[in-house]
Design goal:
4 helices, mainly alpha, 97 residues
């Protein structure tokens, strides 16, 4: 929600700046699946995070990693296969390995 305009003074610059900063941080955290672990964000979870609550805080980040794990796994396997082939070609004594 954008701050409302005061008819006599226009938009209050400090309020607008705070809103833009908060909005930018919300976008950054939302688009990167970064968990918010500040005291303000975690104050509703009790005095200390339990193991289950801690898993829920980091769930979005873990799900993003799981989504990209297949792509990265294939990439690394191709990279290892290429490097093994290149080493075998450059050093023929290692080719049998």
């Amino acid at each position: 929600m954008v701050p409302t305009r005061n008819p006599s003074h226009g938009i209050n610059p400090p309020t607008l700046s705070r809103w833009r900063l908060k909005h930018t941080f919300n976008q950054i955290y939302g688009l990167t699946n970064t968990p918010r672990i500040s005291f303000d964000q975690l104050k509703g979870t009790g005095n200390a995070l339990s193991g289950t609550a801690f898993r829920y805080v980091f769930m979005a980040a873990h799900m993003a990693v799981q989504n990209h794990a297949e792509e990265l796994g294939e990439f690394f396997q191709r990279r290892v296969n290429f490097l093994t082939s290149a080493i075998g070609t450059l050093n023929t004594s290692l080719e049998a390995a």
